[in-house]
Amino acid sequence: MKIVILGAGGVGSVIAGHLAKIGMDVVIIARAGHCQASSEQGLQLTGLSDFRIKVPAYVDTSNLDYADVLLVAVKTKDMETALEGVKHLAVGCVASLQNGVVKNEQLAKVFGADKVLGATTMIGATLVKAGEVNYSLDGITFFGEQDGSRSGRVEALVQAFLDSGLNAVASENINSIEWTKQAIQNPFAPLAAITRLPVHLVWSSPELATLAVHMYREVAAVAEALQITLSDHDAWSVFNQKTLRDAPFDKAVQMLVNAGKQVAESGRTRIVPSMLQDVLAGKKTEIEETVGHVFREGIRLGIPVPYTEFAYRTVRAIEDNFSGRLNPQPSQT
Question: Which of 149, 146, 143, 230 is nearest to 186 (CA)?
Fold first, then answer.
């Protein structure tokens, strides 16, 4: 099985390194410096994994003609440009590990709906420098057919991840999983970006946890209007979805505060969402394709989403006015 990973930043590199380590035929498409280091000196993973392995890497995709599996791991803001460079590939299937819920429609326009698998990942990783990635969160990666059926291609992909030491699950309700990831990301990514705080401090702050519960419940309301029920899968770890969605408000807030404390006590204090990484680097974020999508769907469906709108517009303002001017470091303990 030939796996091509488009966008081997943090998450893509963690996946590529683990698959390559067990002898899988894996290729990455990435920026020039990262490609050169990964091909020549080897891709170095640190954190939850610690090894170096050479991985074939390309900037120019003209030498590639097919992939049994194309995994897309670029930021959503770069999706259209990235897909332009691989639209010539003959693919068995394609799946996006990006945040948000608009990605599958984008893939279908290029490769056809029958080629597209639903997918999302809870892996956390940061590109430290060209050729080196810190692996900080060993979350589950989900794959599934969008119609809910079981398939050999999903099972084969999940097994490849499991064989490599990565957590993966085949889901028969991948749309629910993708929307649940969005519901979790909807508050935490922008709140981290606005406050410059890593996620365990966002969770453990009663003030920010209060905002987070409001924003989570706004996503749940939008999803319900679209006839999508958020998932209660064990993968969400310290976050009990029923509590976040249905419990008395104060109980939901306290659960987030406790979750933040648990994460800190476990030593996982360097989990910095990609949206905050982009803000600190003065780069454009994924706010439009993630939180912005929920905001626009809420308006379209007539569902009030005031907290989501506030976060969306605030991060947009940061992008528009302060990119490259403010660059404080995230707090860490």
Answer: 230
CA–CA distance from 142 to each of 79, 118, 122, 166, 264 (Å)? 20, 8, 9, 11, 26
Residue 148: CB atoms within 10 Å: 13
CA distance 315 to 111: 32
Q: Which of 33-37, 234-238, 281-285, 306-310 has the lowest mean pLDDT?
A: 234-238
Task: Retrieve residue 16's tokens.
Answer: 């590529």
pLDDT digits (tens, 9 = 90+) for 64-122: 999 999 999 998 888 888 899 999 999 999 999 988 899 999 999 999 999 999 999 98
What topology is assigned to 2-172 in CATH? Rossmann fold (3.40.50)
Residue 265 makes CB contacts below 8 A (sequence gap 6+) with none
CA dihedral (254, 296, 83, 6) in degrees, to 10, reads 0
Q: How far is CA 1 from CA 21, 36, 43, 88, 112, in A?
A: 14, 24, 21, 19, 20
Query: Where do the structural domains in the chain lie, given as residue ranges?
Result: 2-172, 176-322
On whether the CB atoms of residues 11 and 127 are closer than 8 A, the answer is no
Q: How many contiguous H segments (helices) and E segments (strands) does the chain have?
A: 13, 10
Q: What whole-number distance in Å separates Cα of residue 110 and Cα of residue 319?
A: 29
Euclidean distance between CA atoms 92 and 298, whole angstroms: 35
CATH of domain 176-322: 1.10.1040.10
